[in-house]
Write a structure and sequence with these properties.
Blueprint (H helix, E strand, L loop, with lengths): L1 H36 L3 H31 L8 E4 H18 L3 E4 L5 E4 L1 H17 L5 E9 L2 E8 L33 H12 L2 E7 L3 E9 L3 H11 L11 E5 L3 H13 L3 E5 L2 H9 L7 E5 L8 H12 L4 E6 L4 H9 L3 E4 L4 H12 L6
Parallel strand pairs: 2-4, 8-9, 8-10, 10-11, 11-12
Antiparallel strand pairs: 1-3, 4-5, 5-7, 6-7
Helix pairs in contact: 1-2, 2-5, 3-4, 4-5
Bound molecules: adenosine-5'-triphosphate and magnesium ion.
Length: 374
């Protein structure tokens, strides 16, 4: 019975918000016209206020419409395999300016994960969570990232904001429930974001966890099943999303004894969608590789390594470990003629420092190209 009542309420809301949107739309148009006609300072500021009120109304309607559609069971899901990075790119575009305006650090860590869900609806979940993270953080920052967790991918949104006290951890998911907005200032939101998130996650059958500490911050984690990379390639081209290509998901080993170089490479290659294992020495490489079941597709080795070893040794030993040839690039900062001869003589692809990302990317794409017999 409660469910029937709920359904009726939702249908009413859906119908009402639809009908109310019409005059609201007109109101917006009239106000814009009025805005062009008035010239006085005080009239302009009144028009500005009308516009701000219209915007709040519009977002209230959007949110109500979302909720009621979800409750009415009329939201269709289109589950497919796609690169998580496409949503991360969107988050970056949509929220970087907002975070910067508040003086917050904002980082979206590149992800090579391929996930299986509805990209549009999952995108709305992330948008709501990131919007909250930014809104309820006054200092520090927000980090969005992902990690693999037992065949699944966990998307994480960290903030250093006001946090949600334990006693409110369920309440905040209720409609219109807000902490710290007793005056119900609409500029501070409506209290519908998490109610929508909860419904979307139910619909998508995804799990949300969160941890929070008052005045310390929160982390929201959404666990999504993994998808298949081949299926996801189709998604990338069909949707015209750039940045997903041959490098996406490729397992690359970076051998360099300089920590800062390793970190830089990790970030850059991660940005391109590679799975990166970066190590400081040959021993470390072999130890780390022994723990993994998959075989690297590419080795990027710095020529000069510690302890009288070279990148050539690294490449040879890694290849010997797998008993097969693996595409490899030697990176060298040496310009002495002898060294150059030696590195060239090794037969491996060679790049000179400083390596331009575009060049590295082009070479990697070339080497990783799927090819037939040759
Ligand atoms: N990351 C967060 N840190 C601290 N508090 C949060 C966070 N996310 C949500 N909250 C609290 O939970 C309440 C409900 O969040 P919800 O997203 O549902 O609504 P809102 O952000 O207030 O408004 P809306 O999302 O509709 O614009 C917020 O008002 C805030 O008090
Ligand atoms: Mg919100």
């Amino acid at each position: 019975e409660a469910e029937a009542a709920n359904r009726a309420k939702s249908q009413f809301l859906a119908a009402a918000s639809h009908d109310l949107r019409q005059p609201l739309h007109a109101l917006g148009l009239f106000t814009a016209t009025l805005g062009e006609k008035v010239s006085g300072q005080s009239e302009r500021s009144i028009v500005g206020n009308i516009n701000a009120s219209i915007e709040s109304l519009e977002s209230l309607f959007d949110a109500l419409l979302d909720i009621s559609k979800l409750d009415a069971g009329i939201v269709q899901t289109a589950v497919q395999d796609f690169p998580l990075q496409t949503l991360f790119d969107q988050v970056q575009t949509d929220f970087a300016a907002q975070a910067a305006a508040k003086g917050l650090r904002f980082k979206v860590a590149p992800s090579s994960a391929v996930v299986r869900s509805d990209p549009v609806l999952l995108g709305r979940v992330l948008a709501n969570l990131v919007s909250n993270a930014i809104r309820y953080t006054q200092k520090g920052g927000v980090v969005v990232g992902s990690r693999r967790a037992g065949g699944q991918t966990r998307i994480e949104i960290w903030d250093s904001g006001s946090g949600i006290p334990e006693e409110y951890r369920n309440k905040v998911f209720e409609e219109f429930y807000q902490l710290g907005n007793p005056e119900r200032d609409r500029k501070k939101g409506l209290g519908l974001g998490l109610a929508i998130v909860r419904r979307l996650l139910d619909l998508l059958a995804l799990k949300l966890d969160f941890r929070s500490k008052a005045d310390r911050g929160s982390v929201f984690k959404v666990t999504v099943p993994s998808g298949e990379i081949d299926a996801a390639r189709g998604f990338a081209s069909a949707s015209g999303v750039p940045g997903v290509d041959i490098l996406s998901g490729k397992f690359v080993v970076v051998v360099d004894d300089e920590r800062s170089v390793r970190d830089g490479m990790q970030a850059l290659l991660g940005q391109w969608g590679c799975q990166v294992l970066s190590v400081g020495s040959i021993d470390e490489a072999i130890q780390a590789l022994a723990k993994r079941s998959d075989t690297p597709e590419l080795v990027l080795a710095d020529y000069r390594l510690r302890g009288n070893t070279t990148g050539i040794d690294a490449i040879r030993i890694i290849q010997a470990h797998y008993g097969k040839e693996i595409a490899s690039v030697l990176i060298t900062g040496d310009t002495a003629p002898d060294r150059l001869r030696e590195t060239r003589g090794s037969g491996y692809q060679l790049l000179h420092k400083p390596v331009r990302p575009a060049k590295l990317r082009a070479l990697m794409s070339h080497l990783l190209q799927p090819r037939g017999h040759h």
